[in-house]
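Quarterly update from the structural biology core.
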Amino acid sequence: MKLFGKLTRETSFFKEQPRDMQVLLMTNMIYAFVLPVIEIFVGAYIMRSSNDPKIVALYQLTVYTGIPFTFMINGYLLRWFRISNLYSFGMLLSGASMFVMMGLETLSFEGVAVAGFLMGASFGFFWANRDYLALGTTNDQNRNYYYGLETFFYTITAILVPLAVGWFLGAANRNGWFGGQMVQSYRMVTVAVVVLTILSSIVIHRDRFKNPAQKKFLFFKFDQLWNKLMALAGLKGMVQGYLVTAPAILIMRLVGDEGSLGLIQGVSGAFTAVMLYLIGRMTKPKHRITILSVGLVIFTVGTLVNGILFSSIGVMVFVLCKVLFQPLHDIAYFPIQMRVIDVVSAKEKRNEFAYIFNHEFGLYLGRFFGLGLFIALATYVSETFALKYSLIVVAVLQLLSIPLAKHITKQTDAYEGKSSETEEEPLIAVAAANETTI
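Predicted structure, tokenized:
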């Protein structure tokens, strides 16, 4: 009964949030079932079909190349199309891009590059509009809750989806379903992805979101505070490629088949999901640096264990740390990013989408460096060396995010004329600006 009462209170608290924020969260909750398939099993499919980690890395690089390109296209399309339509198009395009991948007879560099760029385009439409809607439907006081609840959804699906898909692919392989062809099994998974993208597209249209009022979004000079955030974005992007690419390669090389993906992800996921919801529900803006620091230290420990042991146990520890690190990092990073956009856009009197668009290039430069490092080490040294040590290099560099994020937070306080002790007080002017934006 106590548990039921707590669930009822949390449900009531959710219903007290603005309607547009509720609709956005429900949309992302459904699409959260799609992301683990795209992030883990597409890489595993390429690895199984090509047995070449460099092709997996190439796929991710073309995915990340497609994202900023589509951010720019999305910025222009917002002049003529509703933001909810472009948002749903991005979700639908992710399923279509998986069909393109599964339709390739041979995984050539050219074919994988085209499929990767198409997947990047789907992410571009999804993330560009999602970030703008998240910025407009929240303020600095409820963003910990928003991202805590959102990452709670993502973490739960990171448990359930790999378990379900891993079991399905493993059972299909053992029992000879679909003529014993794994490609057909992956295609069935793709069909399920398309169905989910259709459902999430329907939900996002339950509210009428408004497009950015100001049309210009392409700028080349920004306030120094924004330039510092771009450096932080570069550090974040540097590790993103590895979080998608490395686990699939390590598991296929050192652990076993795709069924192991679900088992390993599920070991730590349940604890992480509950922890994230509580963090988002109970913490305040002043706690974000602490959350970020804990996540980065956990990730660094995981890469060190993987590099030292380089065995199935090492991989399990690394994936365990990755499952803990990624949502902790996001729940701290995104509110910091959004708060800087609130402050700098008001100071420079520019469209908020201009900063969301520009931010993607900071991420891209980091992703390009990280994946480029992996490809170079795998090509000119060895695959084993790349898998063991490039992760450690990236993790150590990531630790620079801690002092940089702390400095950015202090400078943001200074721009607003407030101290860290009053940080949890509502940002009245910012909240009012958000309400008139969306």
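Confidence is low (pLDDT under 50) at residues 419-438.
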